[in-house]
Amino acid sequence: MWKEIGDRESGKLRPNSFITRIRSNRASSLHLSNHKELVSSHRGSVNSLQVDLTEGRYLLSGAADASLAIYDIQRATDYEAGGLIAKHKPILVDKQHQNGHKYAISTAIWYPIDTGLFVTGSYDHHIKVWDTNTTQVVMDFKMPGKVYRTAMSSLATSHMLIAAATEDVQVRLCDMASGAFAHTLSGHRDGVMAVEWSTSSEWILMTGGCDGAIRFWDIRRAGCFSVLDQSHSQLGRRPPLADKSTTKVSTSKARAPQRKVGSGSSSKHSGTSKILKHAKGSAKQRLHPGLLTSQDRATAHYGAVLGLKATEDGMYLLSAGSDSRLRLWDIQSGCNTLVHYEIVRLQTSKAIQLAVTQDSSIVFLPCMTSVKAFDVWSGQSRMTLQGHYENVNCCFYSTHDQELYTGGNDRQILVWSPLKLIPDDADECDRRTEQPSAVDEDNWSD
Amino acid sequence: MEDDEKTVAVVVGLIDKATNSTKPDLDPRLLKSIKSVVRHSDSELRLAVHNLMSLMKQDHSQVRYLTLNIIHELFMRSKLFRTLVVDNLDQLLTLSVGFRRNQPLPAPPAVASKLRSKAIEFLEKWNTTFGIHYRQLRLGYDYLKNTLRYQFPNLQANAARIQQERRERELRTKEILLKKYELLKSNISSIKDEVNSIVDEVSECLDILISSKEENVPLDPVDEEDFEDFRNIELRTIRENSLKEADKVQENSENKVVFDALRELYKLLVTKHLVAVQESISVLIRVELSDNRLRDSMLKEFIDIRNHLKSIKKKCEEAGCVLSAPENDEEEDIWEEGPSESVNISKPGTPNKQNDSAGCSNSKATNTNATNAKATNVNLNANPNMDPLKSKLLVEAPVMKWGSFLDNWGSNRDYMANQRGLEVEGHWGRVDHDAVIPANKIAELNVQATVYEEEHKEIQQCRAPLKRGGLCERRDLKVCPFHGPIVARDDEGNPLNQEPDMKNFSREELLNQAVKNVRERDKEVIKKREYDKKELKRAKHAKIRGHNEAVLRDAAIASTPVSSAIGDSDLGREKDSLAKMLKKKATAKDRLATRLLSRKAMARQVNLGDEHSKYREAFPNQW
Lengths: 446, 623
What we know:
The complex is a heterodimer of chains A (446) and B (623).
Chain A: H1 2-10, H2 15-27, E1 30-32, E2 36-38, E3 46-51, E4 58-63, E5 68-72, E6 78-80, E7 85-88, E8 90-94, E9 105-110, E10 117-122, E11 126-131, E12 136-142, E13 147-152, E14 161-166, E15 171-175, E16 180-185, E17 192-197, E18 204-209, E19 214-218, E20 224-227, H3 242-258, H4 271-287, H5 293-296, E21 305-310, E22 316-321, E23 325-330, E24 335-336, E25 355-356, E26 362-367, E27 370-375, E28 381-386, E29 392-398, E30 403-408, E31 413-418, H6 423-432, H7 434-439
Parallel strand pairs in A: 2-7
Antiparallel strand pairs in A: 1-31, 3-4, 4-5, 5-8, 6-7, 9-10, 10-11, 11-12, 13-14, 14-15, 15-16, 17-18, 18-19, 19-20, 21-22, 22-23, 23-24, 25-26, 26-27, 27-28, 29-30, 30-31
Chain B: H1 2-19, H2 28-39, H3 42-56, H4 61-75, H5 79-87, H6 89-96, H7 109-130, H8 135-147, H9 155-216, H10 220-229, H11 233-247, H12 256-286, H13 293-319, H14 329-346, H15 353-378, H16 388-396, E1 415-416, E2 436-437, H17 439-445, E3 479-480, E4 484-485, H18 499-503, H19 507-559, H20 562-567, H21 573-582, H22 588-608, H23 610-618
Antiparallel strand pairs in B: 1-2, 3-4
């Protein structure tokens, strides 16, 4: 670390690579944080966690007792043991809200643009949109079955659609602008457990169903345009194309000003969609109108697909299935990359939430009572984060301060943070509380 | 490197040795050596952690229990150990508390429950001491406490609570004392007045009595003369006492009123004022004040008052006032002396021959009594002037022969065992003079004994007719060896009633019967021979089967890796004893149950497996 700082100082290291190095260092040294503690107010298992995407400050959690809470993860509400342990109490707890959910909340996500809204989905068949400041439900969508997962596109500039994965075979897109269902995407043969928007195009939606299929939808067209097939494979990582990566950078830069553009108006295609259209052009488009039946029946997992996570650059998709497999897919080609992840067992009954680091080098996957960190490209297990006493349901990696939040059936929300490298802070703690720090030492009486 | 390995082996060996025992506690010497070895090298500590965790996985609660104890010892001492153990805390808790349903604690159940309670206790201890530094500890504690609702001993909280309670109690007593002190301070003058008034009254009463007495006694000089004559000291003291007694004012009709008043006052003085003064003194002694001067002066005053009161009390007692209620200290003393005196009486220091002689005389008396009883029973009718009830009872009463049991007839008394006048002391060891034979034992020893007397009975003659003529004259109880059972016969010797039955057996029938018998016997012999043949065959088959099984078993054992373990018989007896702990001890109930069940099972087996066994016998080489 000090060497890197020295290199940066002398100009040997470029700022970007310095940042990525520090980040990856921190991400690979995660451990159970002793100084940061979230005081869970939930009485049921924590099903969903998300830190808001704008400030990286508010953690939204939804639990099985139909309660949801928001924690300020930057600012502690009080300190214990003389400042050694920072306790974060929920700043907003919603339990017996009159318009709240009746049954377990399965998903809770922030509105990607700001923290003024958040969306929750529950087993009581409802998706609700909340105003954060007044804690009132501003919109309510009635779904045909239990809601497993909802997703909103963080790139979307032209739509405000909530993709909902429910017990029903159809995936519905709820339009927040109109309060109605904009689309009903049918193709799955069983309930849908996982849903994820593409991180490279605002129009592409990826869903994973209990039938083991992962389907890609272009929401501008009818039907799905691709079904991932686990037997359709390629070996290893596709070498990135130089020109493509450059355009990617440009699109991500272009994203910011386009954000506030309202929905509708199909003429306003962003660069992203053009590229993707162009990319998928040749091979896929031919198949799309009536996918070959054999391809339509392809499966990505034996058993249900429990969780989906696209990498930050939008090129790869990770899927976890109830066959206790984690698969890495090349989105572009739709191929299984055949990376073997050393998983022992996954819990199979619930949808799980995976997390990937920003540079998509590590994937965090809840495996029963622990969270395992795998190298995305080699599949090797990097860490096993053990702290929960019952099954872990969800994890969220905060790219802002390289912390991992996990929630499990034991009602706890645990914070996994990199090792504290700022010694003066620790010193301060020591000075404030000379006594407790002195306690934790060897004490050999004989 | 070599050295390292050697020490490593030492640690692992020590831990294995310490945990391989059936005792409820660790061997302190082994523990100490483990600690000392682990203390000096981190690599050994790491290995110890590894070894301990693998031992915790063993399928035996005793091993786990001992391992947990070692873990606790090291946990409280080494920081590195803590960081290593804490990483795997949930596994440790799973193995020691057994909170996961699919991983219950292993047998034996008694040790398992001990293990659980100990683990919970340890976890609490760890959490209170090191919880701040280890989030895992806090999590585990929180999970067991708030989610699984385990009952923690809550040692710290309890101690704090007790401390708090005690402090509160002390504070309260202090307050009360202070209040009392304040009250006393305001009341001291009135108390003094009261005491003074009563003291005055008492002294007045005493004055009256004394003055009246002086009037009454003009006889002194005469006594004075006599006094010279008594030379004997004893007599003199006796006389002095009597004189003193005479000095005291006797109560009579004249001074009865004064005495009554005095008694009243005395009672008041003793029960109220003296007690009150005593109490206030104790309050003054116990109270804590910033300024002690006033208190000291008050204390002094109170002590003076008390002494004064005591002297007055003494005077009163001399004058003849005694409080009837036994709350006085002196009376208590007397009461205490009482039992010791009584003990003195019964002490064996003075061997009481009285008892012995009493015993003798008693026996004599009973002797005579017995004879008397006989006599009375005999000549009961001759005594018409007796009490009617007694005579009636005498009629009913049985005539008893004389025996030693009559000595203690109806007595309900314990006997001194070693006081019969025989001095055996020192000859045969120590003698317990107090040894007592209880009355019921005596009764047991003196049960009435009677000699059995056979009833004289005439044995009948056989009276069967003899060939020579005449009747058999043998006397047997039931059967005559020559003539069979003895039956009633008439004068010629013919039986009286069974005659016709015997005649019914004709010769032919008897013959037939004999032939039948012989044939049956032949048949049986044939059957038996067949059976023997079968048996032989069966034995042969069984032998073949047994041989086959043995061969197969040998083959099976040879093909498994267990065979090497079986060969290792020198694993130690400790292992055996640990294994023994797992086995349930067979109680009487168990044995009964197995027996009953097995018999039932056998019966069922017999019913069901008849065919099968036949089949097996027919084809012994098929299984």
